[in-house]
Amino acid sequence: MRKVHVFDSVSLDGFFTDEQNDMSWAHKRDEEWNAFAGGNAGGDGELLFGRVTYEMMAAFWPTPQAAQMLPDVAAGMNRMRKTVFSRTLDSVGWQNTTLVKGDLVSAVTRMKQQAGPDMVILGSGSIVSQLTQGRLIDEYQLVVNPIILGKGRTLFETVDRKIGLTLTKTKAFKNGNVVLWYVPA
């Protein structure tokens, strides 16, 4: 059975975007962090996006600027299969992308039962929240960034019950980021 992984950045006070839905604060890069991100992008997964994150990613990763800034990550992002969940998009133009317009939880439940690589959610807070509520997330990789935003959106806005997690691994970086790996308890 395929697994669903989350890879998202959060502020120290638990937000994945600020009040204006900006995530630029989460991109504190250095050589060590770039190597880690490049290694993650080198895998053979399928990316899952909501519309907002998809449009942001599709506007950047296929560009020459992305290839110059982060060549390994850009190559991985463009090569990997991508699925975007949207009720409003009519088409998608980024290579290797499929559009799904139906019920998210039902679609991901079916996808988990099909053959293929594991799936990874980047950003897409509403997707994370809905799939957490549906108990379809197998692993959370949360990058805690050394910043306090004060206000913003959490990854778990629609979760209406406690869901216990077990910490399986941690990794601290010189830039102040700390990655925490959790699985459902």
Describe the secondary structure blueprint for this structure:
Blueprint: E1 4-11, H1 31-41, E2 46-50, H2 51-60, H3 64-69, H4 71-79, E3 81-85, E4 97-100, H5 104-113, E5 119-122, H6 125-133, E6 139-145, E7 165-172, E8 178-184
Parallel strand pairs: 1-5, 1-6, 2-3, 2-5, 3-4
Antiparallel strand pairs: 6-8, 7-8
Helix pairs in contact: 1-4
Q: Give the helix proportion (percent range).
A: 25-40%
Q: Helix/strand/pairing class, anyone?
A: alpha/beta
CATH topology: Dihydrofolate Reductase, subunit A
Order of neighbouring strands in the sheet with most strands: 4-3-2-5-1-6-8-7
Overall shape: globular
Strand content: 25-35%
Question: Could you give a quick summary of the protein structure above?
Answer:
By secondary structure, the chain is an alpha/beta fold. Helices cover 30% and strands 26% of the residues.
Q: How would you portray this structure in words?
A:
The structure is a single chain. The two termini are 19 Å apart. The relative contact order is 0.25. The longest helix is centred in the N-terminal third of the chain and has 11 residues, at 31-41. An eight-stranded mixed β-sheet has the order 4-3-2-5-1-6-8-7, with helices on both faces. The model has no long low-confidence stretch (mean pLDDT 92). It has one domain (4-184): Dihydrofolate Reductase, subunit A. It has 185 residues and is α/β, with parallel strands linked by helices. A hairpin with a 5-residue loop joins strand 7 and strand 8. The chain has helices at residues 31-41, 51-60, 64-69, 71-79, 104-113, 125-133, and strands at 4-11, 46-50, 81-85, 97-100, 119-122, 139-145, 165-172, 178-184. The protein is 30% helix and 26% strand.
